[in-house]
Amino acid sequence: MAHRSVTCGCWKTWFVTICICAALSAFPTSSGRTAETKRILLLHSFGLDFRPWGEYSKAIRSELNRQSPWPLDIKDQLLTTARSTDENPEPPFIDYLNALEVKHPSDLIIGIGGPAANFIQRHRDHLFPATPAVLTALEQRRVRSEALTKNDTVIPVVVNYRVVFDNILRLLPNTKQVVVINGASPNEKFWRGELGWELKPYEDRLKLLYFDDTPFETILKKASTLPPNSAIFWHLMNVDAAGVAYEGDSGLKKLFAVANAPIFSYDDGFFGGEVVGGPMHSVLESSEKTAAIAVRILSGETAGDIKTPPVLFATPKYDWRLLQRWGISESRLPPGSAVYFRDPSAWDKYRSEIMAVCALFLLQGAMIFGLLLERRRRQFAEVQSRQRMSELARINRLSTAGELTASIAHEINQPLGAIQANAETMELILKSSSPDIDEMKEIVADIRHDQSRASEVIRRLRSLLRKTPFEVRDIDLNDIVRETEELVSALSAIGVARQVDLRNSITPLPLPIRGDRIQLQQVILNLIMNAVDAMSDIPSAERKVTIRTARDEDLAEISILDAGPGIPRDKIKEVFEPFFTTKAEGMGMGLSIARTIIEAHDGRIWVENHVGGGADFRIQLPLSQPLSGSSAAL
Q1: Which architecture characterizes domain 469-634 according to CATH?
Q2: What is the 8-class DSSP label of residue 343?
Q3: Which of 176, 315, 328, 565 is a Cys-bridge partner for 229, taking CB atoms 3.0 to 4.6 Å apart?
């Protein structure tokens, strides 16, 4: 029983294994994916890196890998026999390809260039009888249309040498000679004949030099000593007359290193450092078309059913470095031309930095403009404010004058009354039989004195009340104090009307300042009148106002001290605020105006309660050296 159980278990194991294998066989394996790989044979005309065919090969390979939906196995085969001048150099290469195709047949053949296309057409029947072929980078004159089969499609190009030479003459209209560089392989010899025929119309205008029978090293020597107004047309140099092959860009680079004339070509496979440029075939355009048609054929389309129009010259392109080297103006380029390798400008190199700096400058400019605008507005506001202040100060002076009306009338009436009395006395003397001339002279002198006294009162009053702009001049603060004191005394406002003892203590040192005489006089007058008003409730014998001036280093000081009750402590910081007043009928603007005037003179004004009683108003103004008079509107 145990034996039967084990046997049964083995059968189950085998059954599961068989099911798993069957399931796995339903999925594609790596070998299955390999079976889907498309084999492509790239047949090169001269070699893997002969220009321009090598450039086409690289671009076609890149485009095939980009466009193909299948994995690709791309093999390169080199038709080195195209370089040879032997009559029949191909049999060994044919035997090699035959053996290769029998063992690993290709799904598609791509022939690059004329020699490769001719080889495929000549040996198709016994090498590739059923394999589709794409013949590309093939000038249409090299196509053997009668040998094309249903498995062949052609991507032809048209080389228009006249367009190339017209471009040379457009860029260099003074050209007298063009050297044509062309090799000596069978393919290059074919094109030598085509060049001679197609360029025949230029022989009357240009001297065309062909060096196809000359070794390339000799050509290099001649290219270094070409006469002025020469140009070089690089056609092909795969094999020179000495049988030397030039792979890659070695030949073109050697020519560029020694040539004393600009080099032109017909294919942008040569473009990128040595060739000036112009209308040329585009390697990328032909390669994209080749890859696209290859994918269509690998997808099942018949090659012979695909017809492709000839590829013409692409948009002209030029090397900026060589335009600069040969002094060719960009204005001579055909419209729509593309210029490559241009040295990046400062804008190209530092675009973000330049934009950031420009943005910073714009922001800074906007800020400066805003600040200037604000400054102008502020200056305008300050001018208007000072004008309003001047008007208000004048109103304040008028108000002060109104308060002094009785004193003004009394002071003017005194000299006028004396003048009238003296005039009447003189009239009586004149009526007498013997007028006393000496007495009359004394009377006239008295009249003149009284008239001068009345005139001085009026002059000072008019000076105080007149409307004038803010005038900054060199003045002595001591003089301002004296004039104000004389004005107050002359008006009898203190001595007679209010019975106040006005004293002064003026420093003997000069106090030169720069300021407006009238406005400073108004401030001092206002403070004196406030001091007089503050003592209205104390006995007349105790009423005193003391005016002092002093010099403290670079400051001039004024102190106006009264004998009144002083200013309440809680109000001492408010006395200079607008509309603050302790008078029953006061406007509260006098001290505010006084502070504005002093601050406009870069000074300061404050008040302190004196230890012995009364309020002490003090002013400090900056001293200055006497300068030539100047004025500025406030």
Answers
A1: 2-Layer Sandwich (3.30)
A2: P
A3: 176
The pTM for the full model equals 0.55
SS3 assignment, position 559:
strand
**CA Rg, the chain, in Å?**
58
In whole angstroms, give the CA distance from residue 633 to residue 4: 130
pLDDT for residue 626 is more than 50: no
Q: Are the C-beta atoms of 9 and 42 separated by less than 8 Å?
A: no
Cα separation, 416 vs 497, in Å, equals: 19
Q: What's the fold here for domain 35-159+281-312?
A: Rossmann fold (3.40.50)
> What class is the 162-278+316-341 domain?
alpha beta
For residue 73, pLDDT over 90 is answered with yes
Same fold yes or no, 35-159+281-312 and 162-278+316-341: yes
For the stretch 360-367, contacts whose Cβ atoms lie closer than 8 Å and that sit 24 or more positions apart, written own/partner, are none
Nearest to 544 by CA among 501, 485, 480, 602: 501
User: CA-CA distance, 20 to 255, in Å (whole number)?
Assistant: 69
**Domain regions of the chain by residue span:** 35-159+281-312, 162-278+316-341, 469-634
Helix then strand then coil, % of the chain, to nearest 5: 50, 15, 30
Which run of H or E residues covers position 48?
Answer: none
